[in-house]
Amino acid sequence: MKKISIIIPLYNAENYISKCLDSIKNQTYKNFEIIVINDKSKDNSWGILNDYVSEHLNLNFIIINNEINLGLSKTRNKGIDLATGGYIIFMDNDDTLADALSLQYFIDQTDNDPDIILGKTRFLLNDVPKESNYHRLKNKKGTYTDNEILDGFFSGEWAVTAWNKLYKTAFLKNNNLKFLDDLLHEDELWAFETAIAAKKINFLQEETYVYYSMSNPNSMTATVGLKNIEHYLIILTKKLEMSTEKGLYCRSRFTENYLKNFANYTILRNVCKMDFGTFKSFYVKIEKEFDKSFPQKGLFRLHPVLAYYLYRMKFDKDFFLYGKFPKYVNPLLKI
Predict the structure, then answer these.
(1) Residue 154: enclosing H or E segment and its boundaries?
(2) 69: left (phi over 0), alpha (psi -120 to 50) or beta
(3) Across 19-23, 32-36, 115-119, 137-141, least confident range
(4) 4-213: what fold?
(5) CB 127 within 8 A of CB 212
(6) Which entry of 53, 90, 131, 229 is 20 to 30 Å from 158 by CA?
(7) Using one digit for the tens of pLDDT, what is the confidence trace for 184-221?
(8) Quick count: other Cβ atoms within 10 Å of Cβ 73?
(9) Cα separation values, 19 from 15, 251, 265, Å
(10) Contacts of 89 (CB under 8 A, 6+ apart)
(11) What are the pLDDT digits (tens) for 80-106?
């Protein structure tokens, strides 16, 4: 039987971790190890975990207590290093597997040796089932290979989360696919790197994971702070660099639009709601980075003052000209 390593970073989840572990315990497929790494929780998560392990000696646990708070990236990387299974699944400590067959569904799809297998996600908002376009799989067939993977990823056919995917351990280790240390939104960059490296991925028809949220991922009005945007700029810069280094513009016709959309909808959509000086700083940096990859395209080369007002017209609902003149605004912004 093929062994699965389930990696769960644990942080301040005293009210959730037992339910998460119960969903694993109840699996019909039993060849797994559970790697739980407590990242210096401030509540009783570590005590609850130890009690759970003591009460379930039949389960194969590896539990680690970080001496200092390492953050999600370093904690997940430690889990990858500890994994002894041929496959790896990441879980968040407040989520669950969908039902008792979740692991079996994944294992049943390993016969054609994919690097990654993606399952369907059940999304609960405040414990109420909701439709989430972001988490919905939009694949056009059951298996993608090589450049099909990039086309699908750049077209947004699946979410850029680390969880609810089965990864071949050798694929992660041979390609040195580690999460970047001390980076917010680390899944965003890591998913990009795994899509570049993967040669084959499979898609499941079954729900395999339950994602619990207290906020709506489809909301366009969620507040994004300056620190978050700074880290998104780091991610954009690295994506542009890797796209050039790996020749992604030749591998997928969607590369340019994907990167433009990331700059427009993830960074500038949020920063245009701040003061002009902050917007100008980000806009000029983005222009500089795109000029390295697309010097002939003239992207993000509007005068910063004009750009500021155009982006506010496009995205800032508090701006008195919001939503006006879209047939002029969109072409100028090249959106």
Answers:
(1) helix 147-154
(2) beta
(3) 137-141
(4) Spore Coat Polysaccharide Biosynthesis Protein SpsA; Chain A (3.90.550)
(5) yes
(6) 229
(7) 999 999 999 999 999 999 999 999 999 999 865 554 44
(8) 20
(9) 8, 43, 35
(10) 4, 5, 6, 7, 103, 106, 163, 164, 165, 166, 167
(11) 999 999 999 999 999 999 999 999 999
Strand ranges in 67-184 using DSSP code E only, listed in sequence order: 87-90, 96-97, 116-125, 128-130, 143-145, 165-168
Calpha distance 79→75 (Å, rounded): 6
Q: What is the pLDDT of residue 295?
A: 83
Residue type, 233: L
Beta strand 200-213 pairing with 87-90: unpaired
Output the six-digit token pair for 190: 């890591």
Domain boundaries, the chain: 4-213, 226-333
Sequence-separated (6 or more) residues with CB below 8 Å from residue 235 = 183, 185, 188, 189, 262
User: What pLDDT score does 83 carry?
Assistant: 98
**pLDDT digits 0-9 by tens, 179-194:** 999 999 999 999 999 9
Q: In angstroms, what CA-CA distances link 209 with 94, 186, 201, 283, 309?
A: 11, 20, 18, 38, 42
Q: Give the pLDDT confidence score for residue 223 in this predicted structure.
A: 56
Read off the amino acid at residue 138.
Answer: K
pLDDT of 296 reads 77
Q: Which two tokens stand for residue 238?
A: 């690295």
